[in-house]
Amino acid sequence: FGIGDGITREQAVVILDRIEKYKSGLKEDKAENEQNGVDGNAEEKSEQTDTIQFTDESDISDYAVDSVNDYTKRGIIKGFDDGSVKPQGIITRVEATDIVDRILKLQEVE
């Protein structure tokens, strides 16, 4: 299961995004939509797909695209100077701390 392995940037973003959504109750909304036969992500996903503008966007796993898009739109992740996001790279402590700090600052505003 990868015990002792590092966590990739995209994995970190997905985990934090899911925690945020769970805490805000979006998990319940999604479950309700699924029960009613509504795919709550279909329209949102097509909108968000256009927002990724990283040079290595094709390296982002399908399961992480929505989270990376959301965090990019909200300014939580910005990518590197070369235009990449390096989704498969191992996240550093500094990068993880920066992401959490940006999330907390946005939550203060809301």
Characterize the structure shown:
By secondary structure, the protein is an all-alpha fold. The protein has five helices and no strands. The chain has helices at residues 9-24, 26-35, 42-49, 65-73, 93-109. Helix 1 crosses helix 4 (65-73) and helix 3 crosses helix 4. The chain is globular. The N and C termini lie far apart (37 Å).
How does the SSE layout of this entry go?
Layout: H1 9-24, H2 26-35, H3 42-49, H4 65-73, H5 93-109
Helix pairs in contact: 1-4, 3-4
Features:
110 residues, mainly alpha
Low-confidence stretches: 40-49
SSE class: mainly alpha
Instruction: State the share of residues found in helices, binned by percent.
Output: 40-55%
N→C terminal distance:
37 Å
Task: Give the CA-based shape.
Answer: globular
- Strand fraction equals under 5%
Report the sheet with the most strands, covering strand number, pairing sense and barrel closure: none
On the 0 to 100 scale, the average pLDDT is 84
Task: Give the C-alpha Rg.
Answer: 15 Å
How many helices? The count is 5
Number of strands: 0
H and E order: HHHHH
